[in-house]
Design brief:
With 51 residues, the protein is mainly α. It has one helix and no strands.
Length: 51
Amino acid sequence: MRLSSSMLKFFYQLVNSFEYQKDNQLWRQHQSTELPQLDPIEEFDDELPTI
C-alpha cells in the first residue's frame, strides 16, 4: 500500500513538472511569433448570386 502511494505521488509530480515545462515552452513560442491580423470582412464575397 505504501509503495503504491509513493508511486502515485511520484507520477503525479512527474506529470505536473512536465505540464509546467510544456506550458512555459508554448507560452514563449506564442510570444515570439506574432499572429497575422485577419480581416473578417475580407472573407465575404460582395457579389450577389445570379438568379
